[in-house]
Specification:
62 residues, alpha+beta, 3-stranded antiparallel beta sheet, 3 helices, 3 strands
């Protein structure tokens, strides 16, 4: 039996800031605008890679 995944690989802006439990403005200011997380335009809108977000959080103070 396969377990459902809570967080998909590609997150929209709302899901991305909830994934790391920060406010939307904090996510945009500290992660996206500083270049730690890239925004990828797709046919479904802007998406953020969950693995990039994990790395950015891991190296927040670097």
């Amino acid at each position: 039996m396969q377990q459902l995944q809570r967080w998909p690989k590609w997150l929209n802006r709302n899901e991305a800031h909830q994934y790391i439990s920060v406010a939307d403005n904090t996510f945009m200011k500290h992660y996206v605008k500083n270049g730690k997380v890239k925004a990828y335009p797709t046919e479904h809108g802007i998406r953020y890679d969950r693995d990039e977000i994990d790395e950015a959080v891991k190296h927040y103070y670097d």
